[in-house]
UniProtKB/TrEMBL annotation:
<protein>
    <recommendedName>
        <fullName>Late embryogenesis abundant protein LEA-2 subgroup domain-containing protein</fullName>
    </recommendedName>
</protein>
<dbReference type="GO" id="GO:0098542">
    <property type="term" value="P:defense response to other organism"/>
</dbReference>
<feature type="region of interest" description="Disordered">
    <location>
        <begin position="24"/>
        <end position="62"/>
    </location>
</feature>
<dbReference type="InterPro" id="IPR004864">
    <property type="entry name" value="LEA_2"/>
</dbReference>
<keyword id="KW-0812">Transmembrane</keyword>
<feature type="domain" description="Late embryogenesis abundant protein LEA-2 subgroup">
    <location>
        <begin position="160"/>
        <end position="249"/>
    </location>
</feature>
<dbReference type="Pfam" id="PF03168">
    <property type="entry name" value="LEA_2"/>
</dbReference>
<dbReference type="InterPro" id="IPR044839">
    <property type="entry name" value="NDR1-like"/>
</dbReference>
<keyword id="KW-0472">Membrane</keyword>
<feature type="transmembrane region" description="Helical">
    <location>
        <begin position="98"/>
        <end position="125"/>
    </location>
</feature>
<keyword id="KW-1133">Transmembrane helix</keyword>
<dbReference type="GO" id="GO:0005886">
    <property type="term" value="C:plasma membrane"/>
</dbReference>
<feature type="compositionally biased region" description="Pro residues">
    <location>
        <begin position="43"/>
        <end position="52"/>
    </location>
</feature>
Length: 279
């Protein structure tokens, strides 16, 4: 039993009234049910639709528990923050690098200019190598010492060197003429330095003498057979160091010449045929 209203203070009464207004309204209780009138009915089962054999689906596949665990761990992991591109500060080029670049650029320009100048001069001058030819040859004597196959030879050679260039002078710094028989050296003669102006030809007289040159027996036999057949074949090889001069410039190169000479037998061996090539 609570305290009667007439004994309670007005403030307490107001608070109780406010609390009653805030409480939700109670639902009415259902009327009592008579157990004799209740009829128990069996629960109705849901009816399934007929199964079509053609649309029958395969049984569901079992999922590997390890994969489920991996997926769960992947979901639990926190999302990664997007990667940030870190820009490094630019380094200023040092003055030494600038100087090296300028020097390389200037050197390349000089090379290009020099190449263009050389090409222009080459096209304007059109340099050509000199030509070498054997104008005449006389075989004075040939004999072989016995019993050893020692070779002795005496030949007079007249060569003609011409400069076909129209604007270039040639200076022959060194010149050497060699005499061969069956690729065996027989005699050699060096020529002094000489100048040849453009469009000029010069005749060179050479005396090639061989004294007691040892020959293999088979080469000596070939020499004797050629003398008897009145056809002796020699080879002349020339090596020249040529300096070409034009205007204020010049350049040097090596020239090689090979001549095949066919002469009659001595003592009055004359030149019958010749063939020369220069490179």
């Amino acid at each position: 039993m609570g305290t009667p209203y007439h004994l309670q203070s007005p403030r307490t009464i107001i608070n109780k009234l406010m609390n009653r207004k805030q409480l939700p309204l109670a639902l009415p209780q259902p009327p009592p049910v008579d157990p004799s009138k209740v009829i128990e009915q069996p629960p109705e089962l849901p009816q399934l639709p007929p199964v079509d054999p053609s649309n029958e689906q395969p049984p569901a596949q079992l999922v590997d528990p390890s994969k489920i665990t991996e997926q769960t761990q992947a979901l639990r992991q926190p999302a990664r923050a997007p990667s940030k591109i870190i820009l490094q500060p630019r380094h200023r080029t040092s003055p030494a690098m600038w100087c090296a670049a300028i020097v390389c650029f200037a050197f390349s320009i000089l090379l290009i200019v020099a190449g263009v100048v050389i090409l222009i001069i080459f096209l304007a001058v059109k340099p050509r190598p000199p030509s070498f030819d054997t104008a005449n040859a006389i075989l004075n004597s040939i004999y072989v010492d016995s019993p050893a196959p020692y070779f002795n030879n005496d030949m007079t050679l007249v060569a003609n060197i011409s400069n076909p260039n129209k604007k270039i002078n040639l200076v022959f710094r060194s010149a050497t003429i060699e005499l061969f028989f069956q690729d065996r050296p027989m005699a050699v003669q060096a020529l002094p330095l000489f100048l040849q102006r453009h469009g000029q030809s010069q005749v060179l007289n050479m005396h090639l003498v061989s004294s007691r040159v040892l020959l293999p027996p088979e080469v000596a036999v070939k020499m004797v057979n050629q003398v008897r057949s009145n056809r002796v074949v020699y080879t002349i090889k020339g090596t020249f160091k040529v300096e070409a001069r034009f205007g204020f410039g010049h350049y040097s190169y090596w020239m090689y010449t090979i001549c095949e000479l066919e002469l009659t037998a001595p003592p009055y061996g004359v030149l019958v045929a010749r063939r020369c090539r220069t490179k």
